[in-house]
């Protein structure tokens, strides 16, 4: 299955490239106005120019050799996920991330974090099950797609595929759990509550965060520590900054660097959070949502995977035709709105 490309007119990939990316650049310029000129040049390149290389001395440039095949072509020629990851590399270059390590999205993250408070989950009859549910729907809090935040309540009818019984069985007997994080703020707050519940159950938990600013709200170690300071009880999880997570590669055994692959292989189960990680697990292709292949037929990872994701892209594998039809009947943009979610397991 070939991945989505941004030149499929009227697809969400095409709208992301032509509409969402310029808005994201404008938002960064509002928050870091001292780099407005460089960001304006990037915006013009994305909307009316052609793909350019980063300078050789930029520490992102060496990770994006795939871009060489598209230099001189419109941004719409890029594969969707590759283009998204390249956009954030270019934003980092425009704001001088390499020199001063200033997160251009920190102000937006801070606005999203306002009002977060810890929940007392000690009396829950099944703390891991409760934390898993919160962690799933926390994925709606995505600053790169603000419309997903409009769905502030979760109902069972919003869950299109429910592998929770298997997921909970895996988690409750696991001694080592790897959680590949997605968003900061609300979502990582819920993820830390999940880590705390797993630790209380006797598991060792490792959180894999982004090593640099990515997808506006994606969590870096500093964002995890920011959330921890607001929590009332410690989670005890280790935090690892993983550079592969901010590059253009897919989450498959074949593409994972050895150190990251080995770290994931040492876990009894991997919890993959969010829409972007899901897309990378299944190759970011335009799968038919009612395809008869199971999620586990597509995923190739070094340990069992639990995907917790709300739908914000036209990428979905292993969800039955009836569930898809039910969601489509309720809302036209059901695949991208963030309203619906899935819990899917791959052995």
Short note summarizing the structure:
With 347 residues, the protein is of the alpha/beta class. Helix content is 39%, strand content 11%.
Task: Write up this protein.
The protein has two domains: 93 residues, Up-down Bundle (Transcription Elongation Factor S-II, Chain A); 232 residues, Uncharacterised protein PF01937, DUF89, domain 3 (Rossmann fold, 3-Layer(aba) Sandwich), CATH 3.40.50.10880. The protein has 13 helices and seven strands. Helix 1 packs antiparallel against helix 2 and helix 1 runs parallel beside helix 3. Strand 3, helix 9 and strand 4 form a beta-alpha-beta unit. It is α/β, with parallel strands linked by helices and 347 residues long.
List keywords for this structure.
single chain, 347 residues, alpha/beta, Transcription Elongation Factor S-II, Chain A, Rossmann fold, 2 domains, 7 strands, 39% helix
Produce the secondary structure layout:
Blueprint lengths: L11 H20 L4 H13 L31 H15 L2 H4 L5 H8 L13 H11 L21 E4 L1 H10 L2 E5 L5 H15 L3 E7 L10 H10 L7 E5 L15 H8 L3 E5 H8 L13 H4 L6 E6 L10 H10 L10 E6 L1
Parallel strand pairs: 1-7, 2-3, 2-5, 3-4, 5-6
Antiparallel strand pairs: 6-7
Helix pairs in contact: 1-2, 1-3, 6-8
CATH class membership of the largest domain:
Alpha Beta
Number of separate structural domains: 2
CATH superfamily of the largest domain: Uncharacterised protein PF01937, DUF89, domain 3
Strand content: 5-15%
CATH topology of the largest domain: Rossmann fold
Name the poorly predicted regions. none
User: Helix and strand succession?
Assistant: HHHHHHEHEHEHEHEHHEHE
Which structural category fits the helices and strands?
Answer: alpha/beta
Provide the residue-averaged pLDDT.
Answer: 93
CATH architecture title of the largest domain: 3-Layer(aba) Sandwich
- Compute the CA-based radius of gyration: 19 Å
Amino- and carboxy-terminal Cα gap: 21 Å
Write down the overall geometry. Answer: globular
Fraction of residues in H or I helices:
25-40%
The total beta strand count reads 7
**What characterizes the major β-sheet?**
7 strands, mixed
Number of helices: 13
